[in-house]
Amino acid sequence: MGNSYAGQLKTTRFEEVLHNSIEASLRSSHLVPRPIFSQLYLEAEQQLSSLEGGSRVDNEEEEEEGEGGLEPSSPPNPYQLQPPPEGCCTTDGFCQAGKDLRLVSISSDPIDVPAGFLLVGAKSPSLPDHLLVCAVDRRFLPDDNGHNALLGFSGNCVGCGKKGFCYFTEFSNHINLKLATQPKKQKHLKYYLVRNAQGALTKGPLICWKGSEIRGRQTSARTGASSLFPPLESSGPLAAFPNEPSPGANPSVLMGTQQAGAASDHPSLSAAPGPPLFNGRDSPKHQQLPKSNLPVPPRPAALGILSNSGPPKKRHKGWSPESPSATDAGCLPGAGTRAKCESAGVSCLPSAGLLGAAPVAFPVVASGEPVSVPDNLLKICKAKPVIFKGHGNFPYLCGNLNDVVVSPLLHTCYRNSQSISRAYEQCGATTIQPISEEMQLLLTVYYLVQLAADQVPLMEDLEQIFLRSWRESHLTEIRQYQQAQPQLFPPTPSAAAPVTSAQLPWLAGLAASSCNDSVHVIECAYSLAEGLSEMFRLLVEGKLAKTNYVVIICACRNAAIDSCIAVTGKYQARILSESLLSPAEYQKEVKAELVTGKVDSLGAFVSTLCPEGDIDVLLDKFHQENQGPMSSSLTTPSIPQAASVDVSGAPVCTSYRLEPRGIRPFQLAVAQKLLSHVCSIADSSTQNLDLGSFEKVDFLICTPPSEVTYQQTLCHVWHSGVLLELGLEEEHVTKQRVEQYVLKLDVEAQTKFKAFLQNSLQNPHTLYVLIHDHAHWDLMSSAVQNLCSQSEPCVGLVDRLLNCREVKEAPNIVTLHVTSFPYALQTQHTLISPYNEIHWPASYSNGADLYHENKKYFGLAEFIESTLSGQSLPLLRYDSSFEAMVTALGKRFPRLHSAVIRTLVLVQHYAAALMAVSGLPQMKNHTSVETLEIAQNLLHAPAQCPRGHGLMVLLRVPCAPLAAVAYERLAHVRARLALQERFEIVLGNPSAGVTVGKHFVKQLKVWQNIEDAAWRPQTYLELEGLPCILILGGADPLGESMPRSLRYCDLRLINSSCLARTALEQELGLAAHFVSSELPSDKGPRSEALESDPEKLSTTDNEEEEPGTEGAHAFPAPVCFAAGSASERRSPVTRDRPCSQDSASSPLSSTASGSALAGEAGAPPAGPLQREQARSPPPCGPSKEGRVPGEKPRSRASQGPPPAASTHSPGRRSLHTAVTSSCQPSSSGSCSLASAAASSALVLQAPQCSLAKACRQPPIVFLPKLVYDMVLATDSSGLPKAASLLPSPSVMWASSFRPLLSKTMTSTEQSLYYRQWTVPRPSHMDYGNRAEGRMDSFHPRRLLLSGPPQIGKTGAYLQFLGILSRMLIRLTEVDVYDEEEVNIRLGEESDWRYLQLSDPWPELELFKKLPFDYIIHDPKYEDASLICSHQQSITSEDGGTSRKPEDLYVRRQTARMRLSKYAAYDTYHHCEQCHQYMGFHPRYQLYESTLHAFAFSYSMLGEEIRLHFIIPKSKEHHFVFSQPGGQLESMRLPLVTDKSHEYIKSPTFTPTTGRHEHGLFNLYHAMDGASHLHVLVVKEYEMAIYKKYWPNHIMLVLPSIFNSAGVGAAHFLIKELSYHNLELERSRQEELGIKPQDIWPFIVISDDSCVMWNAADVDCAGERSREFSWTERNVSLKHVMQHIEAAPDITHYALIGMRKWSSKTRASQVREPFSRCHVHDFVILNVDLTQNVQYSQNRFTCDDVDFNLRVHSAGLLLCRFNRFSVMKKQIAVGGHRSFHITSKVSENAAAVVPAQYICAPDSKHTFLAAPAQLLLEKFLQHHSHRFFPLALKNLSHPVLSVDCYLNLGPQVSVCYVSSRPHSLNVGCSKLVFSGLLLYLCDSFVGAGFLKNFHFLKGATLCVICQDRNSLRQTVVRLELEEEWQFRLRDEFQTANAAEDRPLFFLTGRHI
């Protein structure tokens, strides 16, 4: 029955069994521990849910159904309720009589309560949010102590009034509790009910049943050694977005599986670098830890299964199953948004945002009672506890809510880790279950147990632990699904059951069984409220003083578990609570503390720490005492005798010089990569950028709202000369003019940006480059800006300006984002294509130096490397004494933000250090070694330089109000110490410029040779050499560059609790530095021991080597890692500060700085420093290894000059100083004026400018301890943990199921990683770009340049602008052949010329009288044979125009010409006007064209010629078809009489090969838009590629037999096709009544390289006047063609051409408007007149000369229009270059020389893979003198060439004659020929014809035929043997195979 206590075990027996059970579980090899209660008194098979007994009264082990109700899937319990009577009410909340019992309903109703009865609230599982009102006899209820309750029950129903219920079971049935377990009053009667002031019934205190008090199990954490980062800061107010928390709640609750968490990547369970002292845990047992890993048991084999591989046999070894995150895995960061403390007034609900409360994804409205937060909790605990919601419901909190912080981050982490990866879901992985809640909580406990006292829990670590646990537990199934064969390999069921909710509290207790109270587990019976109340009670009572984490578990057997984790450790709670603040809240809180005066108490306390009295009093006293002249030790020293002096007598610093400006190889390489990417955008088929349409470049650089960055960019632009290079400004650009090209993104930016957009619209032919520098700054969406526009007007400005519609759509704006930290721009929603990212190249590749530079870049990787190398003093350091003081003060002032404490402490340290160096040595005890070192070098460095060059100290204070406080305090101290002229203090405020005192401005002007009286430094770079402290304020650095004199980068105040990867690298980027590569910079700073006194150095070393060194005995040996510990190796600067300080006894304590060796001063610091090293503990624990690390190098140093870096080694330093008998002068200054003077004297013996040294060394960086550990820690791949942080607060991880970053990843691979695994938050400007990863989501004209900070990106992109401008000019220019006509002196000497200079067209009759000029004047035929005629008087002396043999292959002369608007273009040209012409038009689908066959017969070939036309749909109107889509009949031709100016009458044919990209086939602009017919003539094998590039062009495809033919075949077929088409058109139009002679007979045959056309305008005073002037201008091809086509008597001309353009054209060549001579390249051919004159189809070269001669000899007119000229572009590919002569059989790739092109018939000569005709022509061109020796350089006796012109080389002249009857030939009666060339002669050549010519004796003959048979027949037919002598050896053939049909030669000599 419900009142029975039968079966309950008494506590003694239970505790014994429990103890034995735990012991057995630890020793057992079973996978799952046996439940305790089954060992007590139940059978193993009995279900746990039916158990009673245990340590809780009334069977607490059953565990209540849970606040959330019963799970529907829970198994039925043995307990069965009695069925309710028929007809009664069974509604929840009502009794069986139907009366309402719910408190909310009857709270105001009067209720009759009998005497002795109390009203109580009962909980019903089915109504978790309601209490049911009951009246119960108070005797059966417990007293306040939980005692004296009678067994049994007595109660009444307040609804229906029924009384006398004696059994709680009966009563629970009546009030419809509907329980699944046996009803018990202890479980369901929860609260007393009381009346409030208004008389309403309300929930009162808990009923305190005996045994239901919370049991706590106390556990402690074991030591780990790596610091972990808490959650990161959010990116600002986000209330405007759904699924994003409001500003109050902060973005801590994320959508879907996206997580919010902290940002770190740390091996949670391994010992990573940390201080050997374990932060004060010096128990000897810790010394036995292994090298790298803590003693943890093997990893669990599967989810929910405890390790069975031998746990420790003893109970108190702190054993816990290791979580799956081990060192080898590394852990990825979780989302770094910081969850805001859910503030008190709203009962842990997220605070309402500006637009209302944001929806959340976790249950925030919890059931149950509120928990009251005690008053004065913060005062008692010294820190605000941070409570992380875990699983299930979380109760209300009430009371003192300001002293507690609640975060949902852990809940989100749990939820994310339970989402199964989509990849497995897609495989149908239904059997793979997520990690259970119980296992999650258990692993969390394991994780917390492993954390060290100085570590902070991290959500990313937990996520990786969960992920690995899940993967290992489902390894088999995952592998099966990865093999995509789930049906073949069904997963085997797990051998052991998972952890149950009943086991969870015990297992958690086991995990934390003996951890020195570090972790405390509280188990609740009913709800988390009990556990929270208990925790608050223990906190108030001080019982959790040593506890860092409290785990509260409410494990209900029949419902989901409830849990939460409270962080109560002072260190952890402070860091976590502060990390949950947004940046705005952080600034607001600090401001409030400063304004309200809360800081004053801290300041007063810090000041009183000085035992000598208040520091300000000491300062005033010192000021009064030293108002006279300062001591010599502090004044600038006199010039040493060795120093140089300039003309005026001023000292000169010989070791330092200003840095010359210039572009570095790396910058040039990056600029070229940028240009390459821009070109690839233009080259793509998307038509997004038409570079060819731009004439110039303009730009606008957008910088963050930092005045220094703005001025810095102005200087870069000004000095780069880019404005002059781009033609944007004239000479003498002023800085004011530069300002219009740089935009500071502040409130005034919008106006300037609108002007930029207006300019881009007005100048469509200018390419505007919009450069967004420091692009990771302000990624806020403009929608968010609308929410906070009043407070922060600049927020969202980048999105509003750079992402506006005008910028995105402008075709002439290219956006370039430039940043050192591109991660937030690399998300799933990014606008930037991965192909448009440019990453800074690596310096080395495979060990090779890619770009030799005289400087080495020193960035984050190099800093880390130098720190881990151990070869020198580390460059990254932390200040242990500073951290210890901050921690102590944090406990004393819990209400102050740690940033305030850190700032005031550090400023106090600086003040004390300055005082100590200035003559108050007692103040050394009140600063740290590090700060003292800084002060010493700051003040003493100028003394070592003749000109007083000093060092810069950068003090980074992220909070602007604190920066102002630091500035004021340090300025006050400086003034009191009278150091105003020794060093400057500069307050760096982003919104303000640089302010420097007049004295220092004067110095800077002298140093930098500036004569401008008004000059003031405006950038930090201009402070080079100035001794100063730069206090850099602002939440983030905004791109400010630091000078080379930066020596110390003090980052001890950066907000270490909330860093993302971007924030961390940005802060460390301030120290990035270029160092001279003269010294091996990878060894870190070099020692200056070479400058020291060798005798003193030797003495010091001898002292060090004595056996009783203080390193072993000065203080007790510290606790440190075992030998070879990773911590010691990685933390060479770990320092210890012993309690006993005897620095007062030694004047040397101020020399404890190690960086004196780093080159701040020339005096020997060896002694003091080495004593410091001697005092540092040995890095390898055992005492026998106690020799200090630097001993051997120092031993060498004692024997001779030391190596440069041998006098120091890694080791801890402290303020503990050695007691020495001698006083060594220190380079860093001294504690007394006397020693300072001695030091000064020593320094001056060898002065070296500290600035010059600084240029050779990177700065030293001081970091907070948390950041230091984070930076130096690495994962298993060697990747620094900092790189695995969440990349930016504005993004979040897309999934917990993501791989780890790897050290081997390149920048490109990292980009792809972030693009896959990060998504922008709703506040991010890319959030709306949701087309995840699809190409159409990328903006086509947007690029991203990323590179390390301070590496020179600005110079690179300015260089890019210059080369882009040059390339655009180059794109608008073209290289055209610019060669003077050749053989001018050999021209016609006839007096008859065409002298009617003003004729627009030739007059036919006059023109017929002109003689034909046989001489070839085209410069491309300069190496061709001269053609002789009877009109020319040629002597042998005239033949000197040919090139020397070595000049034959010299590159032809070209000139660069600007493309006119009438140019022809290749495929790279895209403009809007061309789209339709090119076929890119919506009306015509791409490649929509048809193939048509066209056949005609040709008698000379003896077969039908079958050609194919490819005709696009858009061009079908040029043709005639038998029917639409039917047989092609003809190509339409216009009429001669047509006078329309809308089209060009002549069809243009362009034969081409190998130039599908580069051929100039786009004639749209050349034709000025006029309609024209253009046909490309291509070979069959090239058809597809030409069709692809020119889809809207008509193609004439040559038959396949011409695939290897030359240009002659194309010309031949063009002409024959055109004549056949003319006849077809004549017959077709004759039927329409048109005369045949009226059909237009002309075609144009144009080379594919004709680019522009020109017309010469002639101005002559009279027809025959000698006064003559002319100008040339670009004209369109339309103008040229229409002018020629309009010529009268045009049809009487057979061939019309024009000059080839040359800049060297003489007036005489233009004076005559027309010439009768050869025409080339662009010819207008009359196919009617030339019907019987054919091109030679076999020819490869000179076929146009050959055809010209045939046309002339046929009596036809050739006319060259001299007033028109054509420009030919130099194209390096295709054309005649497409023909290569190679060997068919030889594998030797060597080229075959022309002498090998012919061979003896039937010889075994190498067969060549080339057409026979090509071999012939090439051989004759180079070796014709072998056939015609007498013709060599014998111009008066040319070679007779019958019916053909072959090029016999420049040293042989020919005379062309035609054998056709009635042909016009040169009069040869007086000529004696030196040879005869018969080439494929036909029947017109007869024996009688040859007898008309005379030959020299010994003249040679060459007969060429197709085969040997034809050769013999020709010899016989022409009766050649009568006059010519032949020998067998004089027969040859071309050197190709028989199947390639070689040509055969026969040579002979004239008798």
The multimeric state of the shown protein is single chain
- Shape estimate: elongated
Proportion of helical residues: 25-40%
Q: What separation lies between the terminal Cα atoms?
A: 145 Å
* Spatial extent as radius of gyration: 48 Å
Number of strands: 58
Mean residue pLDDT: 76
Strand percent estimate: 15-25%
The chain-level structural class is alpha/beta
Number of DSSP helices?
A: 52
Could you give a short description of this structure?
The protein has 1951 residues and is α/β, with parallel strands linked by helices. Helix content is 26%, strand content 16%. The radius of gyration is 48 Å and the shape is elongated.
Describe what this molecule looks like in 3D.
This protein has 1951 residues and is α/β, with parallel strands linked by helices. The strands form 14 sheets. Strands 36, 37, 40, 41, 42, 43, 44, 45, 46, 47, 48 and 49 form a twelve-stranded mixed sheet that branches. Helix 45 (1583-1589) links the parallel strand 41 and strand 42 (1594-1597). The termini are far apart.
